[in-house]
Amino acid sequence: MSDSSLFKRTIHKHDIPSRWLPKSSRSIRVYLPPGFQPWMSYPVVYCQDGEEFFNFGRIATHAQRLILEEDWEPFIVVGVDVNVKLRTSEYTPDGERYLSYTRFFAEELIPWIESHYPVRDVPEQRLLAGDSLGGAVSVSLALAYPELFSRILSLSGAFYDVYMEQLRSAPSLERLSIWMIVGLQENEFATDRGTFDFVELNRQAEQTLREKGAQVLYTEKDGEHKWGFWQKELPEALAPFLGPEPRAFR
């Protein structure tokens, strides 16, 4: 294998066909790790807000460094793009496009990726990642499709009442492992649904998840509701799932 192959960072872009989404396709981007080999199998991270995870979260840059410099097992990252104007409609359970989006994600995107890339096809090797509404819809997906998802990374999840109703009505969540963070300066954040205390939203979600038996790693620290905060936290967020010495959930 040449040195250029070993250190190369590769990102592919695709339009995934869909019978569920109104426009019949969705753009995604796929990061392949250095030294990628199609006959191997890899853990996979699925990111809501895919364009922002790649451009503002710099997840491909983080992944490249962690694999090459910190001896992490190579993994693949899939970013699923979203139209910002339609984001709330797709990500919130009472949104008009929520069912279409979640069905696309679970029933079309996952099979497409698994038929085109050598990703591992068990819940313990799939990680759902999202910021704000993306973190909350990742939990929704794990509730709706327990056979597919059991690991979640939530950056300042927007756990509105409609998500909390889903959590409270769920059966045992002992199968779930979730890493959560929220910034202490997110206590009065304006959204298209009003102004919320995201610290309190996340505390309530953490408590309910624990009551349901989920394994949770929860952190509060200084930070605002923006990528300048989340981007710095991504390596620590990924570590319990993909790092060489994962922290124990509790």
UniProtKB/TrEMBL annotation:
Signal peptide: none annotated. InterPro entries: AB_hydrolase_fold, Esterase-like, Mycobacterial_A85_antigen. SUPFAM superfamilies: alpha/beta-Hydrolases. It comes from the Bacteria. Gene3D superfamilies: alpha/beta hydrolase (3.40.50.1820). PANTHER family: ENTEROCHELIN ESTERASE-RELATED, IRON(III) ENTEROBACTIN ESTERASE. This is Enterochelin esterase-like enzyme. It comes from Cohnella phaseoli.
